[in-house]
Design brief:
The protein contains one helix and no strands. The chain is an all-alpha fold. It has a domain of 40 residues.
Length: 95
């Protein structure tokens, strides 16, 4: 199979296909805050800033306990499902 000859005959005609000036490099350490000048209007959607919610210590504790309770409920569903599978398999193998 013959190799094609590489040519650099491309010319830039100045047309903009997609404006990439607002695209930033993604962070390797997680989501970084959006940097914007103060006179720029707020954006809606994925890049929009969320308002900070000030929580008291009691509210933070209840929030953490609620998250732990949700995780406990999900883990109990998994344990019950695996236990049911073990019981079914024991019933099949011992009969």
């Amino acid at each position: 199979m013959a190799r094609r000859k590489h040519t650099d005959d491309l010319e830039d005609d100045g047309r903009v296909i997609a404006d990439m000036s607002a695209v930033e490099r993604p962070s390797l350490m997680g989501r970084q805050p959006v940097r914007r000048s103060p006179d720029e209007p707020a954006r809606e959607g994925r890049g929009a800033r969320r308002p900070k919610i000030a929580l008291t210590t009691k509210e933070r504790v209840w929030l953490a306990l609620g998250a732990m309770k949700a995780g406990f409920v999900v883990s109990m569903v998994f344990v019950a499902f695996i236990g049911a599978i073990i019981l079914v398999l024991l019933a099949l193998w011992t009969s």
